Amino acid sequence: MAIHEITTTDVLQRCESCNDEHRVLIDDLEVGVARDQQVDGRMVPMPPCPVCAAVEFLVRAPDNEPEHPSQGSFGHLHRMMVDELHAQLVTRGKVNAAVRDGEGNVPPSLAKPLSTEKRNRWFSKGLRARRKVEQPEGTPVENSQ
Q1: How far apart are CA 111 and CA 109, in angstroms?
Q2: Can you say whether the dihedral through the CA atoms of 113, 116, 122, 123 is positive or negative?
Q3: pTM assigned to the model
Q4: 53 in the Ramachandran plot: left (φ > 0), alpha (ψ -120 to 50) or beta?
Q5: Which residue ranges make up each domain of the chain?
Q6: Three-class secondary structure assignment of 85-101
Q7: Which residues pair with 21 in a beta bridge?
Q8: 5 by DSSP, 3-state: which?
Q9: CA quadruple 63, 110, 98, 44: dihedral positive or negative?
Q10: Tens digit of pLDDT for each residue in 76-133?
Q11: pLDDT tens for residues 58-70?
């Protein structure tokens, strides 16, 4: 599954298993996954696909990740959108309790929002990514979700 658009209220997600597109409310998402004694604050668990039940975990970029090798590609835009969604969730306080410290605070370095420069350069018309999809006759076309 990949995300193709982020609005102020929801995320457009496309399931890779069944190609279903559906919107997920941002208020229904939370940063962080805790299992047993392990906690990962970089992950955002997405709800299961309503059609096929496939599950995805979005993972924000590591702090030391180099620039994407293919600037402007779907992978590059998707990476920035995941980072921005993660940062928005942190800003809204939508963080799993296991990620918070003993006093309930969120680590200040948890979020990695887009810079104004990157937002203006890559997302001047909103947080959307384009991806080539196959039409039934096999001809790739641009799909702007």
Answers
A1: 6
A2: positive
A3: 0.84
A4: left
A5: 2-125
A6: HHHHHHHCCCECHHHCC
A7: 14
A8: strand
A9: negative
A10: 999 999 999 999 999 999 999 999 988 888 988 899 899 999 999 999 988 998 654 4
A11: 999 998 888 899 9
Picking from 50, 14, 40, the residue whose alpha carbon sits closest to that of residue 132 is 14
pLDDT confidence of residue 86: 95
Using alpha carbons, list the distances in angstroms from residue 41 to 23, 34, 110, 125: 23, 9, 7, 29
Nearest to 89 by CA among 17, 1, 22, 3: 3
- Transcribe 29-74 into DSSP letters: --B-EEETTEEETTEEEPPPPTTT----EEEPPPTTPPPPSSTTSH
Q: Which amino acid is at 126?
A: G
Residues in CB range of 36: below 8 A, 6 or more apart: none
